[in-house]
Design a protein that fits this description.
Chain A is an alpha/beta fold and 461 residues long. Helix content of chain A is 56%, strand content 12%. The A-B interface holds A 45, 52-56, 67-68, 70-71, 73-74, 76-79, 90-91, 93-97, 101, 104-105, 142-145, 150 and B 2, 4-9, 11, 15-16, 18-20, 22-23, 26-27, 101-108, 261, 264-265, 268-270.
C-alpha cells in the first residue's frame, strides 16, 4: 500500500522551477504488480526514487508500511572497481547480514544472475544487461514488499525477463513489483494495474488496459461515431471510453477497406499477397472465418506458393470441419513445404478425427524429432494420448511441455487438468494456481472448498 | 528457505544504523588499506615523518625536555591528536563523493559516510598511538600513563569538535567544489598554533590569552596531561574543549541538515 498526499516535487531550472509533480494525490492498492507508464521526463524515475526513499518530495506526505528495494537499474548502487562478489557482500552488510547468511546469498546470486565468472570481475567491466541482472538477482535475495524496477533492466534481454518472471512468481505471496517501462509487452507480462504519469499528474488505473490505452493515446482519425444497435445501448454505455473507441475503429476500418477494395479505380494489382494475408489474419482474430478464408484465397491468387496463407487456409478449413477443402490445401502445402510442422500437426489431428490415434502419435513423434523447439506438437501429443486413454504418458508429455515452455500459462493450465483427471488433486490445484496466480483464482479454490464441505455435511446428517 | 535471515521489515533503526556504519567502515578500510603494505605503512609513516622533522629542527635548539617530556614524546603526542582532527575534517570533504553509489540504498545517509570515516580514523589513531609509544619506550624514553578517564574525555571533546566540522564540510565539499582546495589551506595554520611543538605554558602572557582561544591547543595539553605522569603543564580546560565540541556539533549538524538532501540528489546518477 502506498498513499501520496499533496505530493510536490520540483527542480530548479534556468528561469524558474520545473514541477515534476504538483499537489498530486494518489493511492496504490495492496497486493498488485504496478506498471508505471508515461512519456519521457514525466517523472517515472523520480517517482521510483521517491518510493525507494532516496529522493525526497518538496512537500506533501507519503504513507506506507511496505519495504521497498533500492531502484533497480543499470549498475546503480555498485562500486565500479570492486568485483560483483565484493559489491554483493557490501550490500549484504548494509542490510545487516552476517557472514554465514552472506555465503548462502552469494551462492544464490551467482547462479541466478547468470553472469558466470564475471561475478569475480570488477563491475565496471560488465555490460549494462549484466549489471542489471546482478542488481536484480541480489535484490531478490532480500525480502522486500516491492521491487522497484526501472525500464532499462527490462528492455531487450530475454534471458533476464525469464529469470525475473520466474522469481517474481515464486515470491508472489509476499512481494510485488513496480515496473517502469516503455514496452507494453513487458508491462502486460508483469503488471496487474497501471499508473499513468504526464504533465505533473499521476493517475492510478485499476484496469491495466485503460492505462495502456491512455498512454498510447490512440485516437482513430477516421472516427465513425458508432451508435450501438437497438437493445445494446446499456452494455455499450457501460464500456470504458477507450474500448468504445476501439470498437468503433474496428468497424469503420473494415467498412473503409472493403469499400476501397471494391472500388475499381483503386490500384489493386500493386498490392502484394502479404497485404491480403494480414487482412485475413485480422479478420480471423475478430472471428470472421469466412471472410478470412476469402482474403487468404485472394492472396493465393497473387502468389500461389504463399505458405502463410496456405497454412491458414488448411487450418481454418479444418476448424470449419470442411475436410475436403482442408485436404486440398494440405496437399498444396506438401508440394511446397513437406516438412512444415503445421502440416504434420494437421495430419495428426486428421488421423485422430479419422479414428487412428496411434498413427497420429507416430506422426507427432516424427515432428517432435525434427522440431524440438515447438510447443505445439508436444501439446497435441498429450491430447492424443489422453484421447487414447493413456493418461500416464499424456501426463509425461504435458509435463515436458511445461518444463520446456514455462512462459505459456495455457500449458500449465492443461497440466493441471490432466493431473486432476489422473486423481493427483493436490498437484493439480497447485499447478492451476501457479498458472494463474490472480486474486480471482484464489477465491475460486476457497469457494470450491466451501461448496464441497457443504455437500459433504449434507450427507452426514 | 532462509528463515534466519534478518527480515528487513523487522530491523530496528539502531540495527540498521549499526549495519550501515559497519558496511561503510569495512569499505573505507578496504579502500585505505587495500594495497596491503602501502596503506598500513603510511598510517604510521605520516606521524613518524612529522615528528622526525620536528625533532630534526628541535635538535638545533638544544636537547632539553619540554615540560618534563622528551621532545620526541612531546611532539608525537601533539601530532597524533592533531592528525585525528585533521583527518576527520579533511576526510569529510570527500566522504560523500567517495561513497556516492551507496546512496542508492535508502538507509545510507551522508552523515553515515562521515561517521564511518571518523570511526576509522579513531581506530587508526588508537593503533598508531600505541605503536608510537611503544617505539619511543623502546628507544629509551621514560613516561608513565596517567589518567585514562581524562584521555577518553579529551578524545570525546576532540571528536565532537572534529565531527561537527566534518558534518559541515561533508555538505560543503560536494556542493562547492573549490572548498576541497580551500579548506585544507585554511586549516594549515592550525598546525602551528595547536600546541604540537610548544606548550601553552611556555607562551608569554599576552600571547597566551589569544592562543588559548584555540580548542586544539587545549586538546593537546589535556592529552599530554592524561597520557603522561611526567607532564608538568597545567594548562588546558576540558570544559572549554567540550564547549567548543558541542557548539561545533550543533553548528555542523545544522548546516548538514540544511543540505543533506541536496548533496545526494544534485546531479545524481539514477
Amino acid at each position: 500500500m502506498f498513499v501520496a498526499k499533496d505530493l510536490t516535487k520540483s527542480y530548479a531550472v534556468k528561469g524558474g522551477r520545473h514541477y515534476v509533480f504538483r499537489d498530486v494525490n494518489f493511492s496504490i492498492p495492496e497486493g498488485v504488480n504496478v506498471g508505471i507508464l508515461g512519456p519521457n521526463g514525466a517523472g517515472k524515475s523520480t517517482l521510483l526514487r521517491i518510493m525507494g526513499g532516496i529522493d525526497y518530495p518538496d512537500s506533501g506526505e507519503i504513507d506506507t508500511n511496505s519495504t521497498f528495494s533500492w531502484p533497480l537499474g543499470l549498475k546503480g548502487g555498485f562500486v565500479g572497481h570492486l568485483t560483483g562478489r565484493e559489491n554483493c557482500r557490501m550490500v549484504c552488510r548494509l542490510y545487516g547480514f552476517n557472514r554465514e547468511q552472506m555465503a548462502d546469498i552469494l551462492e544464490q546470486v551467482k547462479s541466478k544472475a547468470g553472469i558466470g565468472e564475471y561475478f569475480e570481475e570488477p563491475v565496471k567491466t560488465y555490460s549494462s544487461g549484466m549489471g542489471g541482472r546482478l542488481g536484480f538477482a541480489l535484490s531478490l535475495s532480500f525480502d522486500f514488499d516491492y521491487y522497484l524496477v526501472d525500464e532499462i533492466t527490462s528492455v531487450g534481454d530475454a534471458r533476464f525477463k525469464k529469470m525475473a518472471k520466474l522469481a517474481l512468481e515464486e515470491k508472489t505471496a509476499t512481494s510485488r513489483v513496480m515496473l517502469v517501462s516503455h514496452s507494453m509487452a513487458t508491462i502486460r507480462d508483469f503488471c496487474d494495474i497501471g499508473i499513468y504519469l504526464e504533465g505533473g499528474n499521476v493517475e492510478v488505473f485499476e484496469d491495466l488496459e485503460e492505462a495502456i490505452a491512455t498512454y498510447q493515446g490512440k485516437t482513430d482519425k477516421l472516427m465513425v461515431s458508432l451508435q450501438p444497435e437497438k437493445g445494446l445501448e446499456e452494455e455499450w454505455n457501460d464500456l470504458p471510453e477507450y474500448l468504445q473507441k476501439a470498437f468503433a475503429g474496428v468497424v469503420s476500418r473494415i467498412v473503409s477497406i472493403e469499400q476501397k477494395l471494391q472500388n475499381e479505380k483503386v490500384e489493386i494489382t500493386g498490392l502484394e499477397e502479404g497485404f491480403f494475408t494480414q487482412l485475413a489474419n485480422a479478420l480471423e482474430n475478430l472471428g470472421d472465418r469466412t471472410k478470412a478464408m476469402q482474403y487468404h484465397q485472394k492472396a493465393l491468387e497473387i502468389e500461389p506458393r504463399h505458405v502463410a496463407s496456405l497454412q491458414k487456409l488448411m487450418l481454418l478449413a479444418e476448424q470449419a470441419k470442411q475436410w475436403t477443402d482442408a485436404e486440398k490445401w494440405a496437399e498444396a502445402l506438401e508440394q511446397i513445404q513437406p516438412h512444415s510442422p503445421h502440416l504434420a500437426m494437421y495430419r495428426a489431428r486428421k488421423l485422430i478425427a479419422d479414428g487412428a490415434p496411434d498413427r497420429a502419435l507416430t506422426q507427432l513423434n516424427e515432428t517432435l524429432a525434427k522440431h524440438p523447439d515447438l510447443p505445439g506438437p508436444l501439446l497435441e501429443k498429450s491430447r492424443v494420448l489422453e484421447s487414447m486413454g493413456e493418461l500416464g504418458p499424456a501426463l509425461e508429455a504435458q509435463e515436458l511441455a511445461v518444463e520446456k515452455f514455462p512462459k505459456q500459462p495455457g500449458l500449465k493450465k492443461r497440466l493441471g487438468q490432466l493431473l486432476a483427471t489422473t486423481g493427483d488433486m493436490q498437484r493439480a490445484m497447485l499447478t492451476a494456481w501457479l498458472a494463474e496466480p490472480t486474486p480471482a483464482n484464489k477465491e475460486k479454490f476457497q469457494k470450491l472448498a466451501e461448496q464441497l464441505s457443504e455437500l459433504d455435511e449434507r450427507l452426514s446428517l | 528457505m532462509f528463515s534466519d535471515m534478518p527480515v528487513i521489515q523487522q530491523q530496528t533503526p539502531w540495527e540498521m544504523q549499526k549495519a550501515v556504519l559497519f558496511a561503510i567502515f569495512v569499505r573505507e578500510l578496504g579502500a585505505r588499506f587495500g594495497r596491503f603494505r602501502l596503506g598500513y605503512l603510511w598510517a604510521i609513516l605520516e606521524p613518524v615523518a612529522m615528528v622526525s622533522v620536528l625533532c630534526g629542527v628541535r635538535v638545533l635548539f638544544g636537547n632539553e625536555d619540554i615540560e618534563g617530556l622528551g621532545f620526541p614524546v612531546f611532539f608525537a603526542s601533539g601530532v597524533l591528536g592533531y592528525l585525528l582532527f585533521q583527518h576527520i575534517a579533511i576526510g569529510a570533504l570527500g566522504a560523500v563523493e567517495a561513497n556516492q553509489s551507496l546512496f542508492n540504498y535508502q538507509r545510507v545517509k551522508p552523515a553515515d559516510t562521515v561517521l564511518a570515516r571518523a570511526l576509522l580514523e579513531f581506530v587508526v589513531f588508537l593503533a598508531t598511538t600505541a605503536v608510537m609509544l611503544l617505539g619511543l619506550a623502546w628507544l629509551g624514553y621514560i613516561f608513565h600513563w596517567r589518567d585514562t578517564v581524562l584521555f577518553f574525555g579529551t578524545l570525546g571533546g576532540l571528536l565532537m569538535l572534529s565531527l561537527g566540522l566534518g558534518f559541515a564540510l561533508s555538505v560543503m565539499g560536494p556542493l562547492w567544489q573549490e572548498s576541497k582546495k580551500i579548506v585544507p589551506v585554511l586549516l594549515r595554520p592550525m598546525f602551528f598554533i595547536s600546541g604540537i611543538f610548544f606548550s601553552a605554558n611556555s607562551l608569554p602572557e599576552s600571547w597566551k590569552f589569544w592562543a588559548m582561544i584555540n580548542p586544539l591547543l587545549h586538546a593537546s595539553e589535556l592529552l599530554r596531561r592524561a597520557m603522561f605522569l611526567e607532564y608538568t603543564s597545567e594548562e588546558g580546560s576540558l570544559a572549554y574543549l567540550w564547549m567548543w565540541g558541542l557548539v561545533s556539533m550543533f553548528l555542523g549538524l545544522c548546516l548538514y541538515r540544511v543540505y543533506r538532501v541536496k548533496v545526494v540528489t544534485s546531479g545524481s546518477i539514477r
